[in-house]
Design brief:
Shape: globular
Distance between the termini: 38 Å
Structural class: alpha+beta
Number of domains: 4
Strand order of the largest sheet: 10-11-12-13-14
Mean pLDDT: 84
Number of helices: 20
Strand content: 5-15%
Number of strands: 14
Low-confidence stretches: 73-83, 201-206
């Protein structure tokens, strides 16, 4: 966190001076690009605190800048033709490429092009993109694999598959990254693993946060803190429980929200369902999480991955596509996918009569139960998740008992998941367990109370 005696503006100025030692002539726009932050949003962070344009940095932006300072913001160097290429940056560079291309497509709304970017033309591949693709090509050729790095669209499609399926090189296999995908195929958004692997290369999450949630947080800031916290939880819970919803029914959901937030939900968080989602003449809805379903190899399957791997495919109602709206892709990836198991655990705790809090203090943790703080994470690689918590435990620092909870379906598909996670975290104060184990723990405690 920033020193209490140091303003946000002063801290950013000091960070820029530090980075300028390695990059003479660094401008504020260069700094924003390094950190993966929209320049206009970055400018609001540098305003005096009494300014009406001042905005407090999200914690993710602050941690991204700290990573840059720790690493000196030095880009990885391309291999020379006469030397064997250094592939130590292979996976982080590939993850950073995924984030840059996602920013172009999701936030800036531009097409992804395989041509090289030139002055005055906003589309095309940058030199950093070319370096990352060259690392992938070198790794493939060195290990007798097909060249997956030659064409950007093919490479991005490969990134929707587990790395071990197409990039089975030591830099992937020895780090436990074989089951890791960098793009969530259904919605085309980078996975949490991609965000973590690209740490220090810039962050898409900060950009999506600016694009989707900045207005949300701005509206919340107008209310007293206690009420703002309640509204945050209400909005997030509403969205997780309603990944798709009848457009005429959204406003009728029984949640106490001011009109500004209802308007924001309709305009910013939801969008019309495409007609292509219809199976036959209507869209089938999942009986478990209420999201839309699609055709799979063996029949209908839920469009929410976390639900599809946890529950049998069970269609509920069927609705016309024109009557439905869906959560936008960024909201789906960062709220709904992890939210399936968060809501399942929360509902189980409430059913026991426990005073569980969902997303307390605007997402300090996912769930709090008295002195227990719970962060629920669904990373396919326990090593990547361990690295995340080894670097920072986030809001768990506020709770005497700190739990890292993972979905049960991960243990069924990833060998020795919890053991590997504990070894990667290297912290004795974090208790690692599954959703089922967490429920059993509280049941046992309630029985002895």
């Amino acid at each position: 966190m920033l020193a209490s005696s140091q303003s946000q503006k002063a801290w950013l100025s000091a960070a820029k001076r530090t980075l300028s030692r390695a990059r003479p002539g660094l401008t504020w726009d260069d700094f924003s690009q390094l950190a993966g932050i929209d320049p206009r949003a970055f400018k609001t962070y540098r305003m005096p605190e009494h300014s009406t344009d001042y905005r407090k940095m999200p914690s993710l932006v602050e941690s991204t800048i700290k990573n840059l300072l720790e690493q000196g913001a030095q880009p990885f160097a391309p291999a020379t033709p006469t030397d064997a290429p250094d592939l130590s940056a292979l996976v982080p560079a590939l993850a950073a490429l995924v984030l840059r291309q996602a920013r172009i497509s999701l936030i800036e709304g531009r097409m992804i092009s395989g041509t090289s970017r030139s002055h005055g033309i906003p589309v095309g591949l940058s030199s950093e993109d070319r370096k990352a693709m060259a690392l992938v090509s070198s790794a493939c050729l060195m290990h007798g694999l097909p060249d997956r790095g030659a064409e950007i669209h093919n490479l991005l499609w490969c990134c929707t598959q587990p790395l071990g399926d197409w990039l089975g090189v030591p830099e992937v296999l020895t780090r436990g990254l074989a089951p890791t995908s960098l793009i969530q195929g259904e919605v085309g958004v980078p996975t949490p693993e991609a965000e973590e692997l690209a740490s220090g290369f810039g962050s898409l999450t900060a950009g999506i946060e600016e694009q989707l949630f900045l207005k949300f947080m701005e509206i919340l800031s107008r209310f007293p803190e206690k009420r703002a916290n309640q509204y945050y939880t209400a909005v997030r819970e509403l969205v997780v429980r309603h990944p798709v919803v009848l457009s005429d029914s959204l406003r009728n959901i029984k949640v106490d929200l001011p009109s500004q937030l209802w308007m924001l939900l309709q305009q910013q968080f939801y969008e019309p369902v495409p007609e292509s989602w219809q199976v036959g003449e209507r869209v089938p809805l999942c009986a478990h999480c209420h999201n839309a379903m699609k055709r799979g190899k063996a029949g209908l399957v839920c469009r929410t991955s976390a639900c599809a791997v946890s529950n049998p495919a069970t269609p509920g109602s069927h609705v016309n596509a024109s009557d439905l709206v869906r959560a936008r892709r960024g909201v789906h990836q960062y709220w709904i996918e992890p939210g399936i198991d968060e809501i399942r655990l929360y509902d189980a705790l409430v059913a026991m009569g426990l005073s569980a809090e969902l997303y307390p203090y605007r997402d300090r943790v996912d769930i709090a139960v008295n002195d227990v703080g719970i962060d629920l994470k669904a990373y396919s690689s326990p090593e990547i998740l361990g690295r995340k918590f080894k670097r920072s435990i986030g809001g768990l620092v506020h709770y005497p008992k700190k739990w890292v909870v993972v979905p049960d379906w991960l243990l069924a598909s990833i060998p020795s998941y919890l053991e590997r996670l504990r070894a990667a975290i290297e912290r004795s104060d974090l208790h690692c367990l599954t959703v089922h184990q967490a429920i059993k723990h509280f049941e046992s405690r309630s029985a002895h109370a």
